[in-house]
Specification:
42% strand, mainly beta, Jelly Rolls, seven-stranded antiparallel β-sheet, globular
């Protein structure tokens, strides 16, 4: 998706404080231990994005500029007449996870694909990609349902900023889904949960887990790598985290603590939440990157010079953007007039 243009600088010294007690070894998936707690809650307000679309953004706002390695999180629900036409990326990954409807993708390398409910696309832009992402609707307006899902932007380690673009697309039936106890469903996109590993192996090793707690009062402990930055985003329903009795509502992003000895997080659907709506949320974690973040819209680099180079490379068709010259996607042709 397209992001409004701005440049921001984050010094390495600030990022270093996020690395305290970091361990790259994942906690064992069957053990329980001290739970992380919530350090910050951010409500995802609606913002305009792409061409006529509205998304709920949490990371990438004034309240939470970034949470290294995570740059942006959008919860989209797109109606007919809107979409995300041709735009570029460099130095980052995008993860698109679809809940409802149909979503098409096309890029300047000739790659195209279609996402349906439960599918995920993990795209590594690397040195450069230009693409379009467009929802597909039933031609009968009475049958046209909104297209809903999430898109996450993840920073690439500095050494991987200029790797070749790649995709890891997974259909819903190829993504592991486990039920560690009655009333708990976990979709393992990447990382590990209760002895099951995800089918996606992302650059940088981020964890992405989908949860559905289907019964009031049901609780589950999810191990996480110590020192990884982690957050929860609630898609619908209510959720309690750790030992806190407070119930958090949908559209809230909850940043988790990173204290020594916290090997995971306890997740509970409130016992008094007896409605029909299950608690649906994602838990996402990643290793903090000790590097500057310089972002100009869809270009994510480590210096202002590199950001300016990315703009020039895209405009002149160089250094990874050669195929961008004159390229126009087929799926977004109706948005070009």
């Amino acid at each position: 998706m397209i992001k409004p243009a701005f440049i921001r600088f984050t010094s390495p010294s600030i990022l270093t404080t996020l690395k305290a007690n970091m361990s790259t070894t994942a906690a064992t998936s069957t053990a329980t231990g001290a739970s992380r707690s919530i350090t910050k809650s951010v409500y995802a307000h609606e913002v305009s994005e792409g061409a006529g679309a509205t998304v709920r953004r949490s990371i990438g706002t004034r309240e939470l500029r970034n949470l290294t390695p995570f740059l942006m999180l959008d919860h989209f629900r797109v109606l007919p007449g809107a979409g995300f036409p041709d735009h570029p990326h460099r130095g980052m990954q995008t993860v698109t996870y679809l809940f409802q409807g149909t979503f098409k993708h096309e890029d300047f390398l000739g790659y195209s694909g279609t996402l349906t409910p439960g599918d995920v696309q993990w795209m590594t832009a690397g040195r450069g990609i230009a693409h379009a992402e467009m929802p597909i609707f039933d031609p009968d307006p009475a049958k046209a349902e909104p297209v809903e899902g999430m898109q996450l932007w993840i920073d690439l380690p500095q050494k991987d900023k200029y790797i070749e673009p790649e995709y890891q697309d997974r259909k819903a039936e190829d993504i592991p889904v486990i039920h560690p106890k009655d009333g708990v469903e976990i979709t393992v996109l990447s990382g590990d949960s209760h002895g099951t590993s995800g089918s996606v192996t992302p650059v940088g090793g981020a964890w992405y887990l989908g949860f559905k707690l289907q019964k009031p009062g049901v609780s589950v402990y999810q191990p996480l790598p110590e020192g990884y930055n982690a957050f929860i985003y609630i898609v619908k329903g209510k959720l309690q985290v750790g030992d806190d009795a407070k119930a958090h509502d949908k559209f809230n992003l909850l940043v988790l603590s990173t204290k020594p000895g916290e090997s995971g997080v306890t997740l509970t659907r409130p016992a008094d939440d007896t409605g029909a709506e299950e608690a649906h949320f994602v838990v996402i974690a990643g290793k903090p990157l000790d590097q500057p973040i310089v972002q100009y819209g869809p270009f994510v680099t480590c210096s202002q010079r590199q950001a300016m180079e990315a703009i020039m490379d895209y405009q002149t068709g160089k250094n990874g953007f050669e195929r961008a010259v004159g390229w126009k996607s087929k799926i977004a042709k109706d948005f070009r007039g």
